[in-house]
Amino acid sequence: MKSSPSAAEVRAILVERLDVLLSECDPVMDNAAFGQTLNDLDDFLLVQGRNFIKEVLQQKMQERIERTETSPEAKQSPCCKKKRKSNTINRKR
Q1: How far is CA 57 from CA 6, 17, 61, 82, in A?
Q2: Is 4 left (phi over 0), alpha (psi -120 to 50) or beta?
Q3: How far apart are the C-alpha atoms of 59 and 16, rounded to whole Å?
Q4: Cβ contacts of residue 21 below 8 Å, gap of 6+?
Q5: Quick one: pLDDT at residue 1?
Q6: Along the chain (93 residues), what's the average pLDDT of each consecutive run of 10 residues?
Q7: Distances (CA, A) of 36 to 22, 23, 33
Q8: Is the sign of the CA dihedral 35, 37, 42, 43 positive or negative?
Q9: How far apart are the C-alpha atoms of 21 and 19, rounded to whole Å?
Q10: Would you state the pLDDT for residue 71?
Q11: Alpha-carbon dihedral 42, 46, 51, 56, rounded to 10 degrees
């Protein structure tokens, strides 16, 4: 099982990704039409910022999942019954 990165490592990765995102703003501003720099930059940051936040949240959820799955309370009981699939799933009404 791979070890999850520490909080400091995650923070360093996020800072690096944010620096890359901000550096990508320069070409957007350079290629904007006259008078449209702010609008183009706003659109770029909304889309790319949303993707950045989505990746951050996915990383945090993955850390939570791994921490929960490795906890002793999460181990499945040997007496636990497996859920069976219903036979009525494929029936038409």
Answers
A1: 16, 14, 6, 31
A2: beta
A3: 15
A4: 45, 48, 49, 52
A5: 45
A6: 67 87 91 93 93 88 84 66 65 59
A7: 18, 19, 5
A8: positive
A9: 5
A10: 76
A11: 100
Question: Which residues have a Cβ under 8 Å from the Cβ of 63 and sit 6 or more positions away?
Answer: 4, 10
* Ranges of each domain in the chain: 7-74
- Match 């990765």 to its residue by tokens: 13
Which residue, chain included where needed, has tokens 């957007």?
28
**C-beta separation of 21 from 55 below 8 A:** no
Q: Of 1, 4, 6, nearest to 62 (Cα)?
A: 4
Nearest to 45 by CA among 25, 23, 16: 25
Tokens of 86: 């219903």
Give the span between the Cα atoms of 25 and 52, in whole angstroms: 14
